[in-house]
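[Q] Does anyone have a clean structure-token version of this?
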Amino acid sequence: MTDRPATPLLDQVSTPEQLRRLERGQLRQLADELRSETISAVSVTGGHLGAGLGVVELTVALHYVFETPRDTLIWDVGHQAYPHKILTGRRDRIRTLRQGGGLSGFTRRAESEFDPFGAAHSSTSISAALGFAVANQLSGAPGKAVAVIGDGAMSAGMAYEAMNNAQAAGNRLVVILNDNDMSIAPPVGGLSNYLARLVSSDKYLTVRHLAQRFARKLPRRLHILARKIEEFARGLATGGTLFEELGFYYVGPVDGHNVDQLVKILENVRDADDGPMLVHVVTRKGKGYGPAEAAADKYHGVQKFDVVSGVQAKAEPGPPSYTGVFAKALLAEAERDDKVVAITAAMPSGTGLDKFGERFPDRMFDVGIAEQHGVTFAAGLAAQGYRPFCAIYSTFLQRAYDQVVHDVAIQNLPVRFAMDRAGLVGADGATHCGAFDLAYLCTLPNFTVMAAADEAELVHMVHTMALHDTGPIAVRYPRGNGVGVALPKLPERLEIGKGRIVREGKKVAILSLGTRLEEALKAADMLDGRGLSATVADLRFAKPLDEALIRRLLATHEVAVTVEEAAIGGFGAHVLTMASDEGLIDSGLKLRTLRLPDRFQDQDKPDKQIAEAGLDAAGIVETVLKALRHNSAGVIEGARA
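[A] Here you go.
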């Protein structure tokens, strides 16, 4: 009779409390099972794979050592949080990641008590953890706050601002620096693990306290010298001098895949009473899955894939992506003009600038996760006569708004902003949705703001930006593929502030900005089938508005509808302001604005998000019919058919 296979440990662990009941010797097996489950789940859903695989052992060790959720565990960005979700009661839903109605791809407060703080943009975890730690300290509540931050996120100034203030938390704050690029420390092994255990141990800390107490009795000059000698000696062995200067007790570097050693060191850190602690953990992105280890960049974010081969599902063939069109157009401008330079904030491949960097390595600058610096750096280049293109996702440019205002707009410097991922972004949900760029840029004097309706328009707009030297200028374009129009052989310089009529009609005017144009044309066909002749205009510019064109359309049509894939306060709001200022609404015109709803939309398929927002053809038709008071249920339903 054969023995029945043992029940997998992961089947016995659905909460950290159950995890903490395991023997320490079982954690290696649990980590292996957790890694396999993560790979299996992401192969079905797609999503961020490499980062999560790199922190499997760390995730197990953190939940084993700290009493989560009493001890708050905060993951920076959240790309690496899938194993955390599996261990915190969400394994049964892990294959709904990034799907409509499913688990978020990031940590989210509404989703679990084990997600004490939502992750979105990078480099926020230390600040948030400091807030939790100080709150616990002030209230006398038990619990520590643990922030897990990647080495890439340490390129953002916010992380250092938080660390500079960390002394306020005393021993309540622990920062885990996840170094998965070997960018800070050399490879670690037995010696470095030994040193980490030594300097985090109670014996070492006790001796250190005694030495410090003795040193305080020395003359001030000798006291300072003794402290510096101790820090310097430890810094030579461990590399932590920078963090010591910021007020942290540094431990590391530590092998992030040795779960037994991690547990021992984290227990020392948990029990220490030496102020804020920083544990430097070295991991390998994609650890334990060959294809991801071999190509960490390609397996950072993945499509659905075959687990055995690692081959990712290929997207259906179609038009080129807007990102690709932008990159190709910018390369052409750089070939013509050696003053064209490109700047990105840790997203060279995401913005298409990796191709630019290959062709012009001296003219492409990746500033890291430092959008504020990137914008002011671009302003300095522009002040010296260069033509900088800042290619930054719409949602990430929000991080640099102060610099956009003060360093670019007020000085009227010709910085070019290419805002990728403008509008809804599908599976990445609310945190990465580029909803607000029109609202926050169109309010600024000196700015020119464009939105591309299709691939050809984007080529023309990149060319227009390259030649625009009289002030800042921006173009927004969405994630994903274009609509399939042919790219122009030669780009056209657009007249600033001039739109175009795409279709002539008489009764209804649809004023479209950006990639809603295709749906606007479909809506015009649907309205025409009801005997409602519709004009469709592509305004091209959200600022300055084509006032002459808008004035004519509002004066000659019974109903006018503005359409934009952006939040309230953008294009439609500026059209309404113009119409109000000029008294055009007083004439009985029915003017309506369509934009994104005043809420954060959850992740879903892009077409479902668009329909939910009412920005598809049916939504446009429905708005027109309501404006004309043709609002019986039958007519409205017919519009959606």
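[Q] Thanks! Anything notable?
[A] The chain has a mean pLDDT of 88.
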